[in-house]
Amino acid sequence: MENNELKNIVKEKYGEIASQSKVQNETSCCGIGSFSCSGVDYTIFSESYNELQGYNPDADLGLGCGIPTEFALIKKGDTVVDLGSGAGNDCFVARALVGETGKVIGVDFTETMIEKAKENVEKLGFNNVEFRFGDIEKMPLTANKADVVISNCVLNLVPDKKKAFDEIYRILKANGHFSISDVVLDGKLPAKLEQAAEMYAGCVSGAIQKQEYIDIIASCGFKNISIQKEKKINIPDEILLNYITADELEELKQKNTGIYSITVYAEKPDCNCEGNC
Q1: What is the 3-state secondary structure (H, E, C) of 98-141?
Q2: Is the pLDDT of residue 184 over 80?
Q3: Rounded alpha-carbon distances, angstroms, from residue 81 to 18, 139, 158, 168
Q4: Portion of the chain with pLDDT greater than 70, in percent
Q5: Taking residues 264-273, what's their average pLDDT?
Q6: Mean pLDDT: which of 56-65, 134-143, 235-244, 248-257 is highest?
Q7: Residue 220 backbone phi and psi in degrees, to 5
Q8: Which of 13, 64, 221, 254 is the most buried (most CB within 10 A)?
């Protein structure tokens, strides 16, 4: 599919999700539902935020694959940018870390998500959290804006990942860094899974090989790249069998192809350094 077609798929699916609660996303049968339904479970990768300072249940749609703020080294007074901010879940956790003197900016290209996030921030009364409509491949932010960039299970949905990481490099200050949770692969998926629109929007078929992901980050000039956390994701057979045959599923298991959630860290070097700055 063309890049614009992929983006439209994501907009449509996440527009539907924005109109529902986390519980509804976990239990509905409208193509965004549970294992007993025909659709992909969009909450399958998510982790619990319940004990985190700043957590707001209204902003949690269960769409992440990690907790990027856990490893992001966010300090009081920092400016943090959250890419694919959804209803604001990670932004509000980041806001608890930056305090009153910091700033948090969420960027999302699904209009209904932006509307939901703005409703949430208005209810909370925060004056240092804002949400901007925009594409991660061309962000509505000036250069050298952020101390820290975070993102949670979003960059796998971006067709041009090189362009996305170039943009992250551009908006980070010198010596700034990112901590990003995302989905990557170890081994090749069957073609039917790669071509399924639902599996793309569900963060599976849009994922690339883990080493390729790291190589893209390095090619953009980032330094001190490290994987902070990694876990294997087990997608139930009943979901996969909506897209591949039983024989193809058995072959997939024998190949031991892995779908992983990783949280990856990297730094933008000081522009007085040698090399790509």
Answers
A1: HCCCCEEEEEECCHHHHHHHHHHHHHHCCCCEEEEECECCECCC
A2: yes
A3: 20, 11, 17, 9
A4: 82
A5: 84
A6: 134-143
A7: -85, 0
A8: 64
Helix (H, G, I), strand (E, B) or coil at 171: helix
Cα 4 to Cα 128: distance, rounded to the nearest angstrom: 33
* The two structure tokens encoding residue 23: 């519980």
Burial-class residue 232 by CB neighbours within 10 Å (0-12, 13-18, 19+). Answer: exposed
Q: Which domains does the chain show, CATH number per domain?
A: 3-267 (3.40.50.150)
Residues 6+ apart with CB under 8 A from 237: 249
Task: List, in sequence order, every residue forming a beta bridge with 265; answer none if it has no partner.
Answer: 179, 226
Q: Can you say whether the dihedral through the CA atoms of 252, 67, 7, 161 is positive or negative?
A: negative
The 8-class DSSP code of residue 180 comes to: E
Cβ partners under 8 Å of residue 211, min gap 6:
none
Q: At 192, which helix (H) or strand (E)?
A: helix 191-194
| CA neighbor of 151 nearest in space, from 24, 256, 266, 11 | 266
Place of tokens 């250069």: 143
State the pTM of this model. 0.84
